[in-house]
């Protein structure tokens, strides 16, 4: 069995704070100790590992190359420890980590979070909206599931996606509009052709491609072309007449689900229940 050496935790903590702030005084204030105590901890650590961690004058110390490496590693390690403690501590019940796609967050979830906050003011909702692995444990995930993907045990269906062709009413000639595409959903025009059973000819039609749906939607709103967009992302714009949808909206066979990896936690149950209420109150396509 591997045996760990006795780590000078107090000295490591003092140095990490000093390295992060860039000065011993700020580190002393954070740790509620004296400047001299931080200085002694740093000196002890330098002697213990046999290399200087700071250089330069005492009133304006600079990290050495070794100090920068150790400071970075310690900050990451202490962050992981804090995250682990928060996850298992009872106080974690006030923080709700939610992951979803950025466009869904911007155009559907965030405009409704005030209602969740009014019903459950004790929760602090924190959104993760990119594809990188989150640094903390996610409580609730809102996912888009393709037609051929099986349901998982911890999935709860929110709604079936409906898509439609939309463009701005300022467009004069709608037949030859540039086609607006989204990299994250590159097959949606083919899906639309399959649903409508109309094979569109692309010869001579300009194609403009955007990285995310919210950019594609903004392009359509500003008359740059036609897009195939899910109803829940542009419902308000269609109902207000800012976008036209002459062919209506059809079921794409994609479904939105909410996934809870650790069932039984009240905060996740509250959020899922609220999500289902918000979906039930959302207007269907005209």
Description:
- The longest helix has 24 residues, at 65-88.
- It is elongated, with a radius of gyration of 27 Å.
- The strands form 2 sheets. An 8-stranded mixed beta sheet has the order 4-3-5-10-6-9-7-8, sandwiched between helices. A two-stranded antiparallel ribbon has the order 1-2.
- Helix 1 (9-21) crosses helix 2, helix 1 crosses helix 3 and helix 1 (9-21) packs across helix 4.
- It has helices at 9-21, 24-31, 35-49, 65-88, 102-109, 113-119, 188-196, 213-221, 231-239, 266-280; strands spanning 54-55, 62-63, 95-99, 124-128, 140-145, 155-166, 179-182, 207-210, 226-230, 250-259.
- The protein has 2 domains: 9-88, Orthogonal Bundle (Arc Repressor Mutant, subunit A); 94-286, D-Maltodextrin-Binding Protein, domain 2, CATH 3.40.190.
- The chain has 286 residues and is an alpha/beta fold.
- The chain has 10 helices and 10 strands.
Low-pLDDT segments: none
C-alpha-based Rg, rounded: 27 Å
Count of the domains: 2
The top-level CATH class of the largest domain is Alpha Beta
Q: What strand line-up does the widest sheet have?
A: 4-3-5-10-6-9-7-8
Order of helices and strands: HHHEEHEHHEEEEHEHEHEH
Number of helices: 10
Shape: elongated
Q: What is the CA-CA span between the terminal residues? A: 67 Å
Structural class: alpha/beta
């Amino acid at each position: 069995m591997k045996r760990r050496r006795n780590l000078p935790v107090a000295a490591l903590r003092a140095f990490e704070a000093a390295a992060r702030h860039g000065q011993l005084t700020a580190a002393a204030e954070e740790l509620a100790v004296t400047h001299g105590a931080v200085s002694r901890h740093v000196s002890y650590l330098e002697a213990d590992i046999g290399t200087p961690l700071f250089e330069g004058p005492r009133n304006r110390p600079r990290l050495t190359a070794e100090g920068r490496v150790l400071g970075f590693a310690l900050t990451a390690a202490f962050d992981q420890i804090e995250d682990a403690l928060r996850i298992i501590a009872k106080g974690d019940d006030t923080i709700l980590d939610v992951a979803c796609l950025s466009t869904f967050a911007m155009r559907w979830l965030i405009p409704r979070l005030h209602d969740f906050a009014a019903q459950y003011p004790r929760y602090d909702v924190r959104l993760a909206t990119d594809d990188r692995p989150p640094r903390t444990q996610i409580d609730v995930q809102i996912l888009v599931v393709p037609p051929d993907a099986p349901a998982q045990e911890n999935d709860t269906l929110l709604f079936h996606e409906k898509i439609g062709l939309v463009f701005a009413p300022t467009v004069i000639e709608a037949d030859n509009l540039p086609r607006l595409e989204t990299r994250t959903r590159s097959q949606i025009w083919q899906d639309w052709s399959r649903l409508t059973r109309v094979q569109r000819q692309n010869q001579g039609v300009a194609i403009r491609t955007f990285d995310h749906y919210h950019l594609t939607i903004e392009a359509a709103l500003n008359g740059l072309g036609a897009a195939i967009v899910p109803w829940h992302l542009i419902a308000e714009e269609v109902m207000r007449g800012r976008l036209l949808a002459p062919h209506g909206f059809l079921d794409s066979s994609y479904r939105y689900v909410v996934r809870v990896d650790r069932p039984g936690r009240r905060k996740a149950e509250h959020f899922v229940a609220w999500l289902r209420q918000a979906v039930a109150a959302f207007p269907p396509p005209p």
